[in-house]
Design goal:
Layout: E1 17-22, E2 28-32, E3 38-40, E4 61-67, E5 70-75, E6 84-88
Antiparallel strand pairs: 1-2, 2-3, 4-5, 5-6
Length: 93
């Protein structure tokens, strides 16, 4: 019996996935074959915050990278608009 049969995508609930390398902490990473979401089994989702608007073209920005204590957003119009913004993560109580 394959242990990964019960593994489901946190976004769409599909059990169609492939292994997709390792996360920085060494745990197995997966990619959903239906929606393309990358995930680690049992890892909690990061809380979603309101996406900022680009200060140059005023479009919504996308999460580009999570750094230690900071989330970096990139303009949705990339590569035409190369603006990025760093937003500090709120400290958990």
């Amino acid at each position: 019996m394959d242990v990964n049969i019960a593994l489901r995508c946190p976004r769409c609930g599909s059990n169609a996935h492939n292994r997709y390398g390792k996360a920085p902490n060494g745990r197995q990473r997966y990619i959903c074959l239906v929606c393309g979401r990358q995930f680690v089994n049992g890892a909690p989702d990061r809380p979603r915050s309101e996406r900022p608007r680009c200060p140059v073209c005023h479009r919504r920005m996308h999460v580009y990278m999570h750094e230690q204590g900071v989330t970096r957003y990139r303009c949705a119009a990339y590569p035409q608009c190369k603006t990025f913004v760093k937003v500090p993560e709120k400290e958990l109580d």
